[in-house]
Specification:
Length: 649
Amino acid sequence: MPEDSITLTFPDGAKKEFKKNITGLEVAESISKGLARNALSVTVNGEIKDLDVPITQDATISINTWDSDEGQYTFWHSSAHLLAEAVQELYPDAKFGIGPPIETGFYYDIDFGDEPFGQEQIPEVEKKMIELARNKSEFKQKEVSKEEALEFYKARNNEYKVDLIKDLEDGTITFYEQGSFTDLCRGPHIPDTSLIKAVKLTNLAGAYWRGDVNSKQLTRIYGVSFPKQKLLDEYLEQLEEAKKRDHKKLGKELGIYMMDRMVGSGLPLWLPNGAVLRRTLEAFLRDEQVRRGYKEVITPHIGNIELYKTSGHYPYYQDSQYNPMQVDDEEYMLKPMNCPHHHRIYSNDLRSYRDLPLRLAEFGTVYRYEQSGELNGLSRVRGFTQDDAHIYCTHNQLKDEIKKTIELTQFVFKTFGMPVDIRLSFRDENEDKYGGESEYWERAQQEIREVADEMSLDYKVALGEASFYGPKIDFIIRDAIGRKWQLGTVQVDYVMPERFDLTYIGSDNDKHRPVIIHRAPFGSMERFVSILIEHFAGDFPLWLSPVQIKILPISEDFNDYGQSCADRFKEIGIRVEVDSRSEMIGAKIRDAENAKIPYMLIVGAKEKENGTVSARRHKMGDIGTFSFDDFFNKVKEENTSRSLPPNHK
RNA sequence: GCCAGUGUAGCUCAGGGGUAGAGCAGCUGUUUUGUAAACAGCCGGUCGUCGGUUCAAAUCCGGCCACUGGCUCCA
């Protein structure tokens, strides 16, 4: 092989020889014109780079286009610079903070000084961005010394960039320039601005400099951009779809819950339909738990402050607990978590190894102070109910119990048609954030990993995501429109058994410490219901629907037949209503459709005569005429099997 | 808590310095109906709240409250 040639390995495994110092763009050109036209950046040995960077040695390579995450990342990063350029043109005194790409789009944090910047200014910035994009300005990289970099920004009075540069090493600092805008930036960037064809600035927000509440708050402008107008249109449609599913809107329309200013913000009131939904979910989980050997307990809503001092939650989470109240000579608190109560139940008896594992479960309501700006419908509230349980077991039982809780959680989400990603949340090196002995942590993390491997789970490890008393397994579900939500957790805890001095008598007749597993598949009923509403867009599976069947008599003459059908369903616990209003059938159908009721049964002269029902399925229309018994059995089976709706994505 | 925005009838929304408007819902009557809206009449609002400017405020200004999107936080 000639000395001035290198071998590049492509994502499909193909190897090809090129001359040394070839650029990513030239590689793309060698493959096809189209690829070269669509190329945004190149990944060389796992590192994303500009297309014009020479490749000096053998490497794995992939050309990043819009179709890859890396390509979109580059595209949005460059779009953030374009946003900054536009802002700079319109507001010469604006000072720039940071402007990174995010999962969908990008943002830039900007200090506008005394200049007011609000929603009205957005359209002119968007317009300017498109105008500048058409200039086809190239993104040019320039290496600068630390001194030069500092000088550049000091001259512009930009304390933010100066702050950033101070943390950088001399010799590694690069600027990128496009049009009239120069930015401190590691890159990489797309070749030029003309690739950006469509831009939408989506949001304005305040953001503290470096995320620090004590620093100055900058104006964060969020946006997305696309290489084609059509992609922007599709994105906007998706936003519309998400809006249609918004649980706050559907929650109101379907009578799930309400908020009331006299009751207080963040304190939802469950309406009858919502109560049915929630109780049905609880019954589902309760049955599954009883089947798996859990015992249900009930504990009060307040507790002596000593309980939370003992657990360590009180000092650690003081900011999010309500002030203690005076009761006789002692202080009591609204309970911020259920665990300490359960630990005291454990301690109520002398426990033998024969009693373990002891699995105590409770749908326990807890109260936490959330900052007012943080409250959001049912998904972030100040009083909520956890589907909590604590499993007290021996070290030998631990892995098996972890495994069972994972299986339960997976079973639960499968029932709702939600794919699950698993994350092992371990601690990072910052040890003071966490309680308990280091060896326990190592051991617990080790055991969690072993279980995950033994179950062949596809998992990711996230350092620094652990809770303060132990590592966690987090379940991240994907809903019907692809959004991710962190729901259930399983946590291993070696700390609380020490703090509460929990013991059991082993087979050796000595006292031992049990291990605790905390787990909550739904997490909070409020939040889970909010996600469920959006996942199903309000079109719940039959078993969860607050009203499962609506019977629609053609005229008042058939109300009695309709009622007799309803009575049969009620006997087996099916939630059924008869629409006996003197409305036309079309209106009754329309109302039932809008209420998202799974089945509508139309009954008139023919049906009464033959003992049949004419059925409609929500969103599907007429599904034909059934003998009453056939339909009855069909519904019974669909209800007990917890089937997903037929047209569910 | 902070930044930006919103607040008009039960719901969706129009209006805008000179005594408040529509559709739907509700109520009453008529209609007795065959697969997504029958017809008519009626009821319904201190224009979130408190204060200021003004001869006059729902409208302009300010405080507060609630809600929305973010930031910080999340056992």
